[in-house]
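Below is the record:
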Amino acid sequence: IQLEREHIHSVYEKIASYFSDTCYKARPKVQQFISQQKPGSLIADIGCGNGKYLHISSQVYKLGCNYCSPLMESAQNEGREVMVYHSLCLPYQSECFDAVLSIAAKDMDLMDGPLDVLSHMQGCLPCV
């Protein structure tokens, strides 16, 4: 966790005010994925950054979480439903989401337990 704090969280804290200037455009495949979900679906965006995917499709409900408070403040100011949580301590009940996004998965390379994070995310999805 210390390595994560030093190399990921501290960087995001520093760049949070500039993040939306450079990371504002939705990736087409992610936008397509969200748009293809059934109306009324509940989607979690784990590590949602500035919440740029949380406005896509008014037909589904989206909740975002991220560990960076300034990014969450920015997302809240844009009217997004977000919470400050670490991906290893998700507050969600098991199998409560229809889909889970984690676009910034590349940041998990430095973390202590990327497989633990993926396991936590998988637990939010229904068993198929």
User: Anything to note?
Assistant: The mean pLDDT is 77. The helical segments are 2-22, 28-35, 69-77, 114-123. The first strand starts at residue 42 and ends at 46. Residues 2-22+30-123 form a domain with the Rossmann fold fold (CATH 3.40.50.150).
